[in-house]
Amino acid sequence: MNSENFETVETKKVKTSTNRTNGFKPTPAFIGAAWASLGVGLISYCVGLWNSDMLLNEKGYYFTVILFGLFSAISVQKCVRDRAEGIEVTDIYYGLSWFTTVAALILLVVGLRNADLALSEKGFYGMSFTLSLFSSISVQKNTRDLKAINNAEQL
C-alpha cells in the first residue's frame, strides 16, 4: 500500500458541560405560579396552626412535619432529576429520600387522624400540606432549570 492514500485527521477536544438542559426555559408565568402556590400553601398551613386551639407541642409537631416534608420532597426531586441526567446518585441516598418523603406523609396522616379537629380542619391541613410539597418541587425544578440554562449560555 502506498502511504499517499492515508489522510491525517486531527481531533480536537471540545469542552462539554456536565449540566444538561432540556432546552426549555421556564416561563415567568410558571415561575410566578410556582412561587405563589408555595407561598399560599405554606402561609395557609402556618396561619391555620397559629389560629388553632392546639397545644403548643402539637403546633410544633405539625410545623416540623411540614418542614421535614418540604426538604424530603425536594430531595426526591433532585435524586430523580440527577438520575435522569446521568448524574450518579447513591442508592442509599435515593432510598432515604423516598423513605423520608413517605414518612412525612404518614406522620401527617397519623397526626391528623388522632387529632381532636373538625373534619374540615383536617382536610385543610392535608390540602395545604400537599400544595406546599408539590409547589416546592416545582420551585426547585424551575431554579435548577434556570441555573442550567444560564450556565449553558455562559459557555
What does this structure look like?
The protein is 73% helix and 0% strand. The protein has 155 residues and is mostly helical. It has one domain (33-149). Helix 2 runs antiparallel to helix 3 (91-114). Residues 9-19 have low confidence and may be disordered.
* Beta-strand percentage range: under 5%
Q: Main β-sheet, in a few words?
A: none
Shape: flat
Q: Termini distance?
A: 45 Å
Count all strands and give the number: 0
SSE arrangement, N to C? HHHH
Category from helices, strands and their pairing: mainly alpha
Number of domains: 1
Number of helices: 4
- Overall pLDDT, averaged? 87
Any low-confidence stretches, pLDDT <50, length ≥5?
9-19
> Mind telling me the C-alpha Rg?
23 Å
**Portion in helices:** over 70%
Q: What is the element layout, followed by pairings?
A:
Elements (H helix, E strand, L loop, with lengths): L27 H24 L4 H29 L6 H24 L4 H36 L1
Helix pairs in contact: 1-2, 1-4, 2-3, 2-4
Tags for this entry?
mainly alpha, single chain
In short:
The protein is mostly helical and about 160 residues long.
